[in-house]
Request: fold
Amino acid sequence: MSRPFTERVADPVAELALTGDLASPARMTVSDLLAWPQHRVRVSFECATSGIQHHGFKGPLLHDVLSAAGPVFDPARRKDRLRFLIAVTGADGHHALLSWAEIDPDFGRAAVLLAVSIDDTPLDRAGPQLVLPQDRCGARHISGINAIRVDGGYTSWT
Reply:
């Protein structure tokens, strides 16, 4: 008696959408993020549910990836960048908000990563992680990023 053939369906590869005020919005996978220069960081941060965490991450800088997507600020006006916000969303519903100035080399220069691996384990299936090495608290570390929106629509409140 023959058994029915069951085809194993591969787990889908996680994908993130780069949207908003960008000249070239895109959909990207961890594999796509490997095209940028990779940076390694060892990070310790406090997690509200599981205490102090210690991990090694590898991935491109958020600034490099978003710059390649062409944020639509005026490059001749340095201060024009200061009105841009970056909203990051994870597959589990967690959100974080950063300002462009935090990651811009002319301002905060924060080495924020879009991690493609954690402790040398690839994140192809889970999706990239937002890693802020300078944060003591891990609340802005977003796992399984599925969306990043760049928004420059904020104007003066006066």
User: Anything to note?
Assistant: The helical segments are 30-33, 62-68, 100-103. The mean pLDDT is 90.
